[in-house]
Amino acid sequence: MDHEDQSGKGLQRPSGATSQFAARCHSLLLGVGHAAAWSVALFLVAMVFLRIFWFDGTILLVYFNTFTLYFYLPAYACLLWAWKFRRPMLAAISLVPIFCQAWLIISVLFLPADGLQQTTVAGQAANTADQVRVRIFFANVCSVNRQIDPMLEEIAAADPDIVLLAEFSHPWQQAMGRAEFMEKYPYSYKTANYGGNANGIFSRFPIKLRKSVSAQLSRSITVGVDVDGKILHVLELHAPHLVFSRTEPYFKFWRRCQKVVSELPRPLVVIGDFNATQFSAAYEQMTSGDLRGAHVDRGRGMATTWPNGKFWIPPIRIDHALLSPQVQCLSIVEGRGEGSDHRPLILDIGF
Fold first, then answer.
1. Residue ranges of domains in the chain
2. What is the CATH code of the structural domain delimited by 115-350?
3. What is the pTM of this model?
4. So what's the pLDDT on residue 243?
């Protein structure tokens, strides 16, 4: 009997040790989880305060705010963790970035397009019957994109009145010159080449005013298009990309852009590859005056244009169309943009 008792006790000891080890592991994991949740929540709160008091002040902040749709999402996991383990202070901290994200996206997420009332500069509802209607097609075709024919077919199918292209490299220029539908666009203008690329504008309507603003805004041009006796001014932008340029040119571009845009005549359409989202300081600065975003205007503020499935990056919108008060957005959609990392913008306006 003594032998049996001792054997029984010997069998129980490993079970007790295992239980203690499991308890310690569980306690350790909980401690790591609490520390991680607090670290993430406090980091996101710090980013909220930096957005308020030092908006896009550094390159890292620019990147963070660019992906506002995604970088605040861990706060929801922190809130769930706090709720599960009854941590009211952690929950309160987690709610700060959640409310910040909600505040930033709610106006573009829930804006009812059908309820929008477009107004003219005089403040009266625009009469679409009296407006001049224009369709604009913009695309960053991507200079290394060799799927040229599908893009040309997309342009032809859209049948725009004005075509604007960025990263318009030599192969693209040759292909556009051979395309049959280009007979519809007798008027054109393009920037000087930059790294083998250019920005090009092609129009059914006469281009009365041509101005290169490359001295102030690299890779940008502005034209005045005569549409039935009315001049529509168009500024095509291609802002520096933070990945491929130094920090200062990016910030300098947007400081100069505000001045250039303020001096351009109206009615005005500013369209192009901004390399900035609707949550960036650059976009906020551009829409702080009389310009407004066409996507938000039509209740499509969450539309995306990049990277068009080319990279393992969450989709964002860095291609924009901004309109002065004299211009009404009738519709705006994104095209396919085969072969490019950007989806085209197809914009119908009245002015």
1. 2-109, 115-350
2. 3.60.10.10
3. 0.88
4. 66
